[in-house]
Amino acid sequence: MMTIHDANVLTREEFVSTFRWIFEHSIAEQVSELRPFPSYQFLHHAMKKRVKKYTIEERVALLQTLPDFIETILGQNPYNHVSKQSGFKSLTSREYKKFIAYHNKYIKKFGFPFIIAMRGHNKQSVYDALKKRLKNSENEEIEAAIEEMFRIYFYILREIISNEDRDEMKKQSV
Fold first, then answer.
1. Mind listing the pLDDT tens digit for each residue in 22-34?
2. Is pLDDT larger for residue 86 or for residue 19?
3. Would the CA dihedral through 84, 86, 92, 96 be positive or negative?
4. What is the sign, positive or negative, of the torsion defined by CA atoms of 102, 125, 133, 22?
5. Which secondary structure element, helix H or strand E, spans residue 1, and what is its range?
6. In the chain, domain spans
7. Other CB atoms closer than 10 Å to residue 166's CB: what's the count?
8. How does DSSP assign 30-57, residue by residue?
9. H, E, C per residue of 104-167
């Protein structure tokens, strides 16, 4: 885990390299110019603010760069903790086929993979969200997917960045 101070003192190149796997490369570049951030929440807010300036086409292009979530959770990776924790490893053949069918409809309708932050979800709530969001208009779904993407980014940032400074972290570990 790094501190927010550590993130703030990275060179531009190091910052982009560190955060491009979380949010898109150009977002990391633009957000790096806004440092220093007092907390990971401010970093997250800066990222959100940048994406909110995107056109609809740019938002769709961003969503198209994200991993296919349903493929990931329905995949055969036995070490996929998201699949295990949310009950996806116990899908019946029928449930699996329903997920795939709805997901294929989703991609065909919207042109990007279904995005959902898994915290607090299980296989039924994800399935229900997928069915419900299929009813959205294109603009409604772009916004819903972007908001889910923001949640995912927030959870990741919270996992990798501490708002405490390094000295405080050392004191607590002693």
1. 888 889 999 999 9
2. 19
3. negative
4. negative
5. none
6. 2-173
7. 12
8. HHHTT---SSHHHHHHHHHHHHHTS-HH
9. HHHHHHHCCCCCCCCCCCCHHHHHHHHHHHCCCCHHHHHHHHHHHHHHHHHHHHHHHEECCCHH
User: What is the value of pTM for the model shown?
Assistant: 0.84
Instruction: For residues 116 and 10, give the distance between their C-alpha atoms in angstroms, rounded to a whole number.
Output: 30
pLDDT above 60 (res 76): no
Residue the block writes with tokens 């399935």: 127
CA 117, distance to chain mean position in Å, is 7
Q: Are 28 and 157 in contact (CB under 8 A)?
A: no
Q: What is the C-alpha separation between 7 and 21, in angstroms, rounded?
A: 15
| Helix, strand or coil, per DSSP, at residue 78 | coil
Place of tokens 């279904």: 114
- Distance, in Å, from the CA atom of 72 to the CA atom of 76, rounded to the nearest integer, reads 8
Q: What crossing angle do the helices spanning 25-32 and 12-19 adopt, rounded to 10°?
A: 140
Class of domain 2-173: mainly alpha
Cβ-proximal residues to 171 (8 Å cutoff; 6+ apart), any chain? none
Per-residue pLDDT tens over the stretch 88-105: 777 788 988 898 899 999
- For residue 79, the model assigns a pLDDT of 40
